[in-house]
Amino acid sequence: MAAIPPKNLLIVGGGIQGASVAYWTSKISPATKITVVEANDRVAPHASGKGGGFLARSWGDGSITETLHHASFDLHEQLAKEWGLKSYRRLPVLSVGAGSRTFNKKGSFHPAWLDGAGGRVDVMGDSSDTAQVHPREFTEMAISQSGATVRLNSKVIGVETVPEEGGGRKVTGVKIEGGELLECDAMVVAMGPWGPFAETWFPTINVPMEGIKSTSVVWPSREATKSEGVALFCGEDDRYGTHIEVYPRPDGTIYCCGVGGSDYIGSDDLKEGRFLTSGCDPNPQRVTAATQALHQISSTYTNLVPDVTQACMRPCPSDALPIMGGVPGFKNAFINCGHNCWGILWAPAAGKSMAELITKGEASTCDISGFDVRRFGVNEEETRGGRGRKRGSASVGEQW
Length: 400
Ligand SMILES: Cc1cc2nc3c(=O)[nH]c(=O)nc-3n(C[C@H](O)[C@H](O)[C@H](O)COP(=O)(O)OP(=O)(O)OC[C@H]3O[C@@H](n4cnc5c(N)ncnc54)[C@H](O)[C@@H]3O)c2cc1C
Prior knowledge:
FAD/NAD-bd_sf; FAD-dep_OxRdtase; 24 strands; eight-stranded mixed sheet; D-Amino Acid Oxidase, Chain A, domain 2; FAD dependent oxidoreductase domain-containing protein; binds flavin-adenine dinucleotide
């Protein structure tokens, strides 16, 4: 049986999900030594640094993810206060239809900077259950508060395992590209869209996932948007071939995503590490579309060009639900990835639930049973303590 709590936990992936597992593990089990291993030269190099950071408490009501939404929204507010996050605030949300009508600027929450042309404007959220945070600030703070050791420029390419008494296997270390072995007595796969790579380490599991690669854009700070923080969900506009999601941040910058034209990257490419350390570039046509669409609705931004253009990948499992829990057949291995379009919102409660599972053997903050990787099928033969090196007669990669 894996030691509970573990003495030496290794988290693969320095995104917001890995960071949150590190933070909550350190709170529940201060004696656990935690190491976060990241393939790139900084933490949050992908969606956890480049995503929108929009948070909505009730937008998952009635679904299996409802408690993740509720618990996380509340924890975001609590942690933002505790940590003094500058990028967190409650903010209202408007839906803005496409069109050429001059806005009448009379509706609730209508900011002065929304003074161009569009369609009907309606209130989607009054800030009682909508908020925002910069995901990079959250991720960096969670890791720093956890006291974890961070290993950058360290791509994990395999795991070392030994047979476990009573059947199955356990992980004793992870192998870094270049040959180094990092020992551990528990490990978590928090590799976001690259989660499918773990299939080659754990032949018991299937991780069907697409990475949805999207462009996003940030405009320079303006006083108008600093003082009037209102998020906009703008309708599809055929003139630009896009809808846009507009998030003014407390520093006055405007972040914009949902600009259309995403690329869908399949599991095989993700297993090969496509876009992991290079090549995840923005699509210039989508930048132009977003720029034209923002110019249309706001004179504050006429003639202004974005000063950040970027792209990142949303981890989308085949059923669009997160993958959270233990790895069958490997008693000290866990997986926490595939959080799709709510991975920033869900990070606090997902990380806390995973930390409870890892340190106490059971998650209590949220019921995560519906997110178990077993729903995609388990390769039973491999769970019985075989050597775990092959699936059928096929090699499964870097597995000892
Ligand atoms: C454009 C866009 C906007 C979004 N907006 C929102 C939003 O407003 N609200 C919201 O809640 N969510 C939003 N999301 C979703 C959210 O950003 C993601 O769900 C979340 O960031 C996923 O976090 P993660 O830690 O699982 O993955 P990632 O941030 O991708 O982190 C995974 C990390 O693992 C590392 N890694 C992978 N493989 C290895 C390996 N073999 N060895 C070492 N390291 C490895 C990667 O380098 C990466 O840093 C958005 C996503 C996109 C694309």
